[in-house]
Amino acid sequence: MKSAASWIFVGTFGRVLECWDRETREYVAIKVVRSIRKYRDAAMIEIDVLNRLAENEKYRSLCVQIQRWFDYRNHICIVFEKLGPSLYDFLKRNRYQPFPVELVREFGRQLLESVAYMHELRLIHTDLKPENILLVSSEFIKVPSSKKSSQDEMHFKCLPKSSAIKLIDFGSTAFDNQEHNSIVSTRHYRAPEIILGLGWSFPCDIWSVGCILVELCSGEALFQTHENLEHLAMMERVLGPIPEHMIRKASSSAQKYFRRATRLNWPEGAVSRESIRAVRKLDRLKDLVSRNADHSRAVLADLLQGLLRFEPSERLTAQEALDHPFFRNPT
C-alpha cells in the first residue's frame, strides 16, 4: 500500500519514514518502532494518548494527527500526517540564530494552548523540547541577517513562511493518576523538582515551556549540561537560590548536591574547571532576555519568571500563561 521515500528521523525508539500513500495519494510520516518491549509499550501509550486528544475537534490544530497504526513483523508502525521540520532543526539550519520575538510569541501561544489542552485531559507530556515541536509547513523565506562576516559580507537567515506548529511525540506522556517514573524529561528541559526527587506533575511541562521560549529567543539551550550538580548551579546562576524548603525535602540521593541541607555544594563539588566556567558565563534571566528581546524584554522576562519558578505550585499554569500581557499585547 505504501512505499518508503526517505528517512525523516532516526532515534533510539526506531525511525520515522516519509512515505507515499497510494490510496490517499499524499505523503505521510510513518513512525516505525523497534521490536523491543519497552519501545512497543511506549508506542501503545502514544496511540492511546493520540486517540484521546483526537476526541476533541480542537486537537487538529494543536497536535500531530494519527491516521492509523499497524503491527508489521513485531514493529508498531504509526501513520501520521506529514509535517515540516522541528523548531530545533530550523534553529540548526540558521546556525542557531534566534527567532524574532514576534515568531516566538506565536510559537509560545500555540505551544501553551496544546499544553493547556493536554492538562485539561489530565495528561502530562513530560518531554517538551524544540525537537518535539514541528512546523506545519516546510516553506521558508530568506531574509538578511544581522550576522556579518569579517569581510562585512551580508549573511541571510531562513524564516518559516507560516508560524503554525504542532506538538509531537507522546510516547512519554503520563496520566496524572498513574504511578510516575522518578526521572522524566530530556536533561536540558528537566524541572528542578525532578532532579531533587520531589515528585512531579503538570508544572514540569511548564518549566520545559519556559526553557524552550528562552532557547527560541537566544538560539541556544538555556541549561546546556549533562550533570545534576552543574544543572542546579546553572539554575541558581540564572534564577537565584533554590528555596531552602525544597532542599530540605530533597530525596536522599539528591542530598549530596548540598552542604548542611541549606546550600548548593558549588563550586566546591564541580567536576572540572570547565564546568565552573560554563556556569559562570550564564547571565541572570532578565539580562539574558534583554540581549535578545528588544522592546518586548520587560514583559517577556516577566512571563519567563512565572514559568521558571523553582516551586512548582507557584509556576503559572498553561492557561494563566496564555492570559499574560506578552500574548495580549503584541507590540
From the alpha-carbon coordinates, what is the Rg to the nearest angstrom? 21 Å
Helix content: 25-40%
Question: According to CATH, what is the class of the largest domain?
Answer: Mainly Alpha
What is the average per-residue confidence, as pLDDT, rounded to a whole number?
91
Uncertain runs: none
Would you tell me which CATH topology of the largest domain applies? Transferase(Phosphotransferase), domain 1
CATH superfamily of the largest domain: Transferase(Phosphotransferase) domain 1
SS summary, helix count: 12
What structural class results from the helix and strand content? alpha+beta
Strand % is 15-25%
CATH architecture annotation name of the largest domain: Orthogonal Bundle
Largest sheet: 5 strands, antiparallel
- Distance between the first and last residues' Cα: 50 Å
Shape summary: globular
H/E series: EEEHEEHHEEEEEEHHHHEEHHHHH
Number of domains: 2
What are the key terms here?
CLK_kinases; 12 helices; transferase; two-stranded antiparallel ribbon; 2 domains; Transferase(Phosphotransferase), domain 1; 331 residues; Ser/Thr_kinase_AS; alpha+beta
